[in-house]
Design a protein that fits this description.
By secondary structure, this protein is an alpha/beta fold. The chain has 15 helices and 16 strands. The strands form 2 sheets. A 10-stranded mixed sheet has the order 3-4-2-1-5-6-7-10-9-8, sandwiched between helices. It has a 6-stranded parallel sheet with strand order 13-12-11-14-15-16, with helices on both faces. The structure holds GDP-alpha-D-glucose (GDG). The site of GDP-alpha-D-glucose has 18 residues, from helix 10 and helix 11.
Length: 476
């Protein structure tokens, strides 16, 4: 019987209708050989091991986060230490011993549960920063199957890692995987820099690293969206998403309300545009920003800042029949979102740091190719690495973003079409189904747990690869 795919993520998808892009993309791989998805149930509760929440067409096994796990592992070490660190906000890192202890404890407990379920011929695919130590903990329990890892957020700079309680653990944790997938070539370069600086690591030219007894490969796999599905959702079916409140023209922004998304500067830039460029024109900024991690202080602060900024800008410029910023601080239906993207003249993505940013890809996929809107994209979003024909901006430069809004709203049709075609190619080349299959194929090609003799053979092969440039990890 062929091995199964076991996906492990912080959250488990709990229902077909609400399944996200990742769940849909992994569906075939999971269904094919009776796969398993393991993740935390959205409702915390007392510990009770893994329990099944569905098995059609693949098994979903959930575990409960205790209130301490939720506070210290999830909100604490994951979202008040690793998240700010990876998004270049070391100033927001909140170091408390109980956060790190619970992060390690939860990962150890989860490794116990996975070890009970995994068979040697299974492939395990672990997702994101909440679960960095899982492979290391599984190896300590004798689990020998291939284990891949994908980090959805930026890989941190080497110097920034020094703020962690035990910075050397990141390399040791990652080295326990067979394959480490990152969003961009720049992330891969930062990860390799970390290994190069570590005396325990011996990096090879193809992006693989010998680390003590193990061999790990590091490569970029830029994540994407289900392009056709989003395009179909955006298609005009006669519904007016604004009802009777349709603005004359509008620029759209869609983001979880997170400090990494650069929202205050986006609002300021729109204010600058109105002050210096609009000249009687009356576009709206439609900002959809559902709440996120609201109990964390940094998130509370940015929520207040945005309310204050939108109030101030609207107070200054609004007219009886025009509200410049329409700020919606809650989630809206995905189909409606797709239609709004299609109707927008431009989209603002202003992240100060972002692993990829799927909103940029959704906006491009939703456009009418014959009359497309313009994507204004932060240089610091992973999406900018391949979407080079978007209007790239520095999100710290409010004046530059105001000029970009002006340029987007005045851009000739031919230039809009040319830029859109180029961005659409990048979006189609990273379709989520390709992303999934490329990652799983690369994991299948990994040599797996190595013996000393196998390692020396590998070393000889790599020295050939060095000269031929075969399988270069950077640039894929
Ligand atoms: C992490 C990384 C990386 C947003 N508001 C609503 C809504 N959304 C949807 C968007 C998009 C998704 O949420 C957000 O994805 P992003 O990629 O933009 O950002 P993160 O949530 O920070 O995701 C990121 C991603 O992982 C994948 O690897 O790209 O860099 O930070 O799909 O459309 N959806 C609905 N209503 C909303 O109000 N229905």
């Amino acid at each position: 019987m062929p091995g199964r795919l076991i996906v492990v993520s912080n959250r488990i998808p709990t229902g077909g209708a609400t399944a996200g892009g990742l769940a849909v993309a992994l569906h075939d791989g999971l269904a094919e050989n009776g796969g398993i998805w393991i993740g935390a149930h959205p409702e915390p509760g007392p510990e009770e091991g893994l329990f099944e929440i569905g098995s059609d067409p693949y098994t979903r096994l959930a575990f409960r986060l205790s209130p301490e796990d939720y506070s210290n592992y999830y909100l604490g070490f994951s979202n008040s230490v690793l998240w700010p660190l990876c998004h270049r906000r070391s100033d927001l890192v909140d170091l408390r011993p109980e956060f790190y202890d619970q992060y390690l404890a939860l990962n150890e407990r989860l490794a116990d549960m996975i070890a009970e379920v995994a068979r040697p011929d299974d492939d395990i695919w672990v997702h994101d920063y909440h679960l960095l130590p899982i492979a290391h903990a599984l190896r300590a329990r004798g689990v020998s199957c291939k284990i891949g890892y994908f980090l959805h957020i930026p890989f941190p700079a080497l110097g920034d890692m020094s703020v962690l309680p035990d910075p050397g653990m990141i390399a040791a944790w990652l080295a326990a995987y067979d394959l480490v997938g990152l969003q961009t070539r720049a992330d891969t370069a930062r990860c390799l820099e970390m290994f190069r600086a570590d005396p325990r690591a011996e990096p090879f030219a193809d992006g693989s690293i010998k680390f003590e007894e193990r061999l790990v490969r590091v490569r970029s796999f830029p994540i994407g969206i289900a392009v056709d599905e989003f395009r179909q959702m955006a298609a005009d079916d006669g519904t007016a998403p604004f009802g009777s409140e349709q603005p004359e023209e509008f620029v759209i922004g869609v983001d979880r309300l997170d400090y990494s998304k650069g929202l205050p500067n986006r609002f300021r830039a729109f204010g600058e545009y109105l002050e210096h460029h609009a000249k009687g024109r009356r576009p709206c900024l439609l900002q959809v920003a559902p709440p996120s991690r609201e109990v964390v202080e940094a998130y509370r602060q940015i929520t207040e800042e945005l309310e204050e900024l939108s109030g101030r800008i609207n107070g200054r410029y609004a007219q009886l029949d025009w509200t410049p910023i329409r700020y919606i601080h809650r989630s809206i239906d995905r189909g409606r979102l797709a239609m709004l993207h299609r109707q927008a003249s431009a989209c603002l993505v202003t992240s100060l740091a972002d692993g990829m940013n799927l909103v940029a890809k959704e906006f491009v996929a939703a456009q009418k190719p014959e009359d497309p809107g313009v994507l204004i994209l932060s240089r610091f979003a992973g999406a900018a690495e391949d979407m080079t024909e978007a209007l790239l901006v520095n999100p710290y430069d409010v004046g530059e973003m105001a000029s970009a809004i002006d340029a987007a709203l005045n851009m000739p049709l031919e230039e809009r079409q040319r830029r859109h075609q180029s961005c659409l190619r990048a979006v189609e080349n990273s379709d989520i189904s390709l992303w999934t299959s490329q990652f799983l194929q690369a994991l299948a090609r990994c040599p797996g747990t190595m013996t000393m003799s196998a390692r020396s053979t590998h070393k000889r092969r790599e020295s050939v690869a060095d000269t031929t440039g075969v399988e270069s990890s950077i640039g894929t």
